[in-house]
Amino acid sequence: MLGVARPCSQETAVVTKKEIVKQISEEIGLTQLKTKEIVQKTLDAIIETLVTENRIELRNFGVFEVKRRAPRKARNPRTGAKVYVPAKAVVTFKPGKEMEERVRQMDPDNLPLEDEDPDDDQENNGPANPAELTTPRAHSPAGTDSAE
Prior knowledge:
7 strands; HU Protein, Chain A; three-stranded antiparallel sheet; disordered C terminus; alpha+beta; single chain; 31% helix
């Protein structure tokens, strides 16, 4: 495990870049200053690749990709007013197999619950379609008749 986990407001452990740098520098024998420079250059390269190429694959880690979030109509939960949310670029991450396997082995009872609904936008305008939250969806396999 990297660094010393510090609690944050949501009772989850937070590891900072500084703690990662310290752990790596101790493991490989470089100064923290040199290690920080390497870590920062790596992060800068990831960002630059996303900006110029829209995608970066890091084997055994995962894939970062820039995607377009479509514009949509939303509702301000405080006022109920309709709000137009324009299209925007968002970064997505799909974990690699090794990360997926290691995370699956974790005890879910020791993890915090997800806070946010992925359909909620970042401006707190509420879900893209509030009716989706209360409308039950009946899914039946294709080609089956529910009357049988």
